[in-house]
Write a structure and sequence with these properties.
CATH class of the largest domain: Mainly Alpha
Largest sheet: none
CATH superfamily of the largest domain: RNA polymerase sigma factor, region 2, helix turn helix motif
Number of strands: 0
Strand content: under 5%
Number of domains: 2
């Protein structure tokens, strides 16, 4: 979507058109999510901060001036909230594994799964990683991924299948869900 159409949707939302929010969200959700994920490196926390970003956008939408940079404005909000969450997380007190062995047992299993997934993803190029993460991890439809990447659906499907095959060769069977 071009900047002018997006600005028109923003204006409609500012003027009380509640359906405009859905269109704004659909047009910006991927950029906002990945802006946050780049800072936090945590998909679950990134989703929480993404919700906070849209709440903050709603609170401050009247202060936005039409300049054709709505996505940049929204991504700035997202980045600031992500940095705040990151800094807050750094201040959290770590627990001693010896004092809570049962708690850390499940964490270790989760960590092993994460390292295994990272090992599998490392055999992929950036575009393949994006396609696999968005479909297998985030649950995005191939059609939406194709639109966002500005690629034909067939190309995205082909790249996804090739990426899964690379991952299978690297680590055995890979369950995409």
């Amino acid at each position: 979507m071009n900047k002018n159409k997006l600005e028109n949707i923003v204006e409609a939302f500012k003027n009380g058109d509640e359906t405009a929010f859905d269109r704004l969200y659909e047009e910006t959700k991927t950029d906002v999510y990945y802006t946050i994920l780049l800072v936090l490196k945590d998909p679950s926390l990134s989703e929480d901060i993404m919700q906070d970003t849209y709440l903050k956008m709603i609170e401050n939408i009247q202060s936005y001036k039409r300049k054709g940079e709505f996505k940049a404005w929204l991504k700035t909000i997202a980045k600031r909230l992500a940095i705040n969450a990151y800094n807050k997380r750094k201040k959290e007190t770590p627990m001693d594994a010896a004092e809570n062995p049962n708690l850390f047992e499940s964490e270790n299993r989760d960590l092993e799964k994460r390292y295994y997934l990272e090992k599998l993803l490392n055999v992929l190029n950036e575009e393949e990683k994006t396609i696999v993460i968005r479909h297998a991890v985030l649950g995005d439809k191939h059609k939406d991924i194709a639109e966002d990447l500005k690629k034909p659906l067939g190309t995205v499907l082909w790249k996804y299948q090739n990426a899964l095959e690379k991952m299978r060769k690297e680590g055995g069977e890979f369950d995409e869900r």
